[in-house]
Write a structure and sequence with these properties.
The chain is an alpha/beta fold and 413 residues long. The chain has helices at 21-30, 59-63, 65-68, 73-89, 112-125, 134-138, 142-151, 166-179, 197-205, 243-248, 277-290, 308-322, 335-338, 345-359; strands at 6-14, 36-37, 50-51, 101-106, 157-158, 185-192, 234-242, 255-264, 299-301, 330-332, 361-362, 385-386, 391-398, 402-410.
């Protein structure tokens, strides 16, 4: 069967550097840091003091107070991003077959804030007194469910839960769903809201997070002094369409998705496989799926978490896949600005990658000072770069050994 072409026609986001796509992209181009002191709770008794929080957003005002109270923060962020995405796409739902429109939306952890709140209430007042909305608030698929209800999408509705790879898996799975003929339109992406005492305590206990207090030296991917990632929160939503469907309605196109790779290290619950073998295989799968030669790739939006193991392993994986061409690649991590959005990361980074292709601008890896010989790539240090790029990869690598990569191409139609 002939594979159909898939394009991005709508985007929406809330994240630590902006509450819309335009605001976020302007901040990324300026190399702005969205990391700061945690304001959601008192950190005086905790080791980690910094996070990438969404700022100045009032979900109740945007979603309605009554409805917002029934949702965990991750779902609120997801719906706000999805609302911008749908408005941006200009899809007239009265003129499309809604049974051929679906949702695949990720969350790595789901309603973690609601879990903590419900447990505290149960201890204090008895567990039969918890909110009747507790279960719909905490389950990870509820953001996807709310989107389908809100927009009337009656096709496949699913939630990918693959930790930090989830956002990219959601975009990739949605891409395949359209390409292989199961839908014309898919709303996809990811959302996360894990800046909570319990979640942060768990990641601190496993020595995953940066414990210093300097926002500008906190999330520093590929830097020799990197010591852990910075938790971020937010959501990214993309509307994917079959090319002919998009063109027939006169949609604006941001970029084309041409390939997707997904695999598993099958090695360790948190550590990457030696030499980044799984990540390398995943990138190769994505390139082969796209029919794209490695030497034609111009830019990689790296997973780049700012942890010692990830960044060196991802660098090794890039050298494995690209060989001598690795020296010519631009490889940056926008997590240096946003922190790590877990299940939302890949979706937000797909948006940034699509805009990089559309505008010919490669985002920087900010905060970079001390080169690491194990991370010997052009990481676009500290300042973004005007560059004509036509093909890009976006990588996501998650706990459990989950790897996902998508190939995007500049739209020149």
């Amino acid at each position: 069967m002939e594979k159909r072409r898939v394009v991005i026609t709508g985007m929406g986001t809330v994240n630590p550097v902006g509450n819309t796509v335009a605001e976020s992209w302007a901040a990324v181009k300026a190399g702005a840091c969205g990391i700061g002191a945690i304001t959601w709770y008192d950190t005086s008794s905790m080791k980690v003091k910094l996070a990438g929080e969404v700022k100045g957003l009032e979900p109740a005002a945007l979603l309605g107070r009554r409805e917002a109270k029934k949702m965990d923060r991750f779902t609120q962020l997801a719906l706000i991003a999805a609302g911008e995405c749908m408005d941006n796409a200009g899809l007239n739902r009265e003129k499309v077959d809604l049974s051929r429109c679906g949702v695949i939306f990720s969350s790595g952890i789901g309603g973690f804030e609601s879990v903590g709140d419900a447990y505290q209430r149960g201890i204090e007042r008895g567990f039969d007194t918890v909110s009747p909305f507790m279960i719909p608030m905490i389950i990870s698929n509820m953001a996807a469910g709310h989107m389908a209800i809100r927009f009337g999408f009656q096709g496949m509705c699913s939630c990918v839960v693959t930790a930090c790879a989830g956002g990219t898996n959601a975009v990739g799975d949605a891409f395949r769903h359209i390409r292989d003929g199961y839908a014309e339109v898919m709303l996809c992406g990811g959302a996360e809201a894990a800046v909570t005492p319990l979640a942060m305590g768990g990641f601190t206990a496993m020595k995953a997070l940066y414990e210093g207090q300097d926002p500008l030296r906190a999330s520093i991917p590929f830097d020799a002094e990197r010591s852990g990632f910075v938790m971020g929160e937010g959501a990214g939503a993309l509307l994917l369409e079959e090319l002919g469907h998009a063109q027939a309605r006169g949609a604006s196109i941001y970029a084309e998705i041409t390939g997707y790779g997904a695999n598993c290290d099958a090695h360790h619950i948190t550590a990457p496989a030696p030499g980044g073998a799984g990540g390398a295989a995943c990138m190769s799968l994505a390139l082969a799926d796209a029919g794209t030669a490695p030497e034609t790739v111009d830019y990689i939006n790296a997973h780049g978490t700012s942890t010692p193991l990830n960044d060196s392993s991802e660098t090794a994986a890039i050298h494995t896949v690209f060989g001598e061409h690795a020296k010519k690649l631009m490889v940056s991590s926008t997590k240096s600005m946003t922190g790590h959005l877990l299940g939302a990361a890949g979706a937000v980074e797909a948006i940034f990658t699509a805009l990089a292709l559309k505008e010919g601008f490669v985002p920087a890896t900010i905060g970079y000072q001390l080169p690491d010989p194990d991370c010997d790539l052009d990481v676009v240090p500290n300042q973004g770069r005007q560059a004509e790029i036509k093909t890009a990869l976006s990588n996501s690598l998650g706990f459990g050994g989950h790897n996902a990569a998508i190939v995007l191409k500049k739209w020149e139609g």
